Amino acid sequence: MGTWSKYCDTFRGNGKQQGKQTAPNSSKAHIYSTRYFLLRGVERMPNLKKTTPYSINDFINWNINQELVLSPKYQRNPVWTENAKSYLIDSILRGYPIPPIYIRQRIDLTTRKTIREVIDGQQRLRAIIDFYNDKFRIHRTHNQTYPNKIFSELPDDVKLDFLRFEISVEVIQIEDDAYIYDMFARLNTNNVVLNKQELRNAKFRGEFKVFVYLVASEWRDIFLENKVFSESKMTRMADVEMVSMFIINIVDGFTTDTPTYIDSFYKKYDVSFSKENIVWSKLDDIREMLENIFKSNQFDPTLFHTKNYFYTLFCFLNHHMFGTENCDIRRLGVFDVTKIKENINLLIEKLMLFQAEFNNFFETETSILNIDFIKFRQYHQSRTTNKNEREERVKILTEAIEQLL
Question: Strand, coil or helix: what is 253?
Answer without folding.
Answer: coil
